[in-house]
Amino acid sequence: MLNVLRPAMTRLMSPLGRFLARHGVTPNMITAAGTLGTVASSLWFYPHGQLVAGSLVITFFVLADLLDGILARMTRGSTWGAFLDSTLDRVADAGVFSGLVIYLVLDGQHVLALGGLLCLVGGAVVSYAKARAEGLGMTANVGIAERGERLLVVLVVAFLDGLGVPYVLAVGLWGLAVASVITVGQRMHVVYKQAVEHDAR
After folding, report:
1. What is the full DSSP assignment across 108-170?
2. pLDDT in tens, 142-158
3. Which segments are annotated as binding site for a CDP-1,2-diacyl-sn-glycerol?
4. Is the pTM here over 0.70, yes or no?
């Protein structure tokens, strides 16, 4: 879904990327700053119950994930940069869901906190499945709940919950947990077919 919007966002943010590149800002700087901002704001705003403000601030920092890719293409990004970006993406995701789980525990919503924890674990397995497949020379670029979609859902439902919309957080988190499990299954299926074909040669 977000891949459809990516070209438009890239065109929108390219002037900023060129400005930063001219002033010596590197993709790795943007990656690190975006991750630090995402984790810090997640662990500050969400546990304090400030879901609306938190979601807006986190969204600002999450957009850095797109900006660092634009900068990398403009400045011939490095292999280290690609590794750093993927690794810190996992850290940022953990920060967002951890902040939300802490909020739910402190608010006494223990069952829903379990749903948030399942989203955190499911997201990590989704990402690992793709990375492991690529490490074995295969691909696993499939699934209904990739990273962009997971972040979009959690930020939107947290924002709406902060505005007082009933049940939206529960529906969003449990739906995301199920979607993550489905995505893991989709990736395992795709890799299984590739592995069988490879081993049959």
Report:
1. T-HHHHHHHHHHHHHHHHHHHHHHHHHHTT------SS-HHHHHHHHHHHHHHHHTT-TTHHH
2. 888 888 889 999 999 99
3. 28-31, 69, 73, 78
4. yes
Q: Count of alpha carbons within 13 Å of 26, Cβ hemisphere only?
A: 11
Sign of CA dihedral 23, 27, 29, 31: positive
Annotated binding site for Mg(2+): 65, 68, 85, 89
Domains, the chain, in order of start with CATH, read 5-200 (1.20.120.1760)
Catalytic, 161? Answer no
**67: three-class secondary structure by DSSP:** helix
Of 89, 93, 161, 199, which is the active-site residue?
Answer: 89
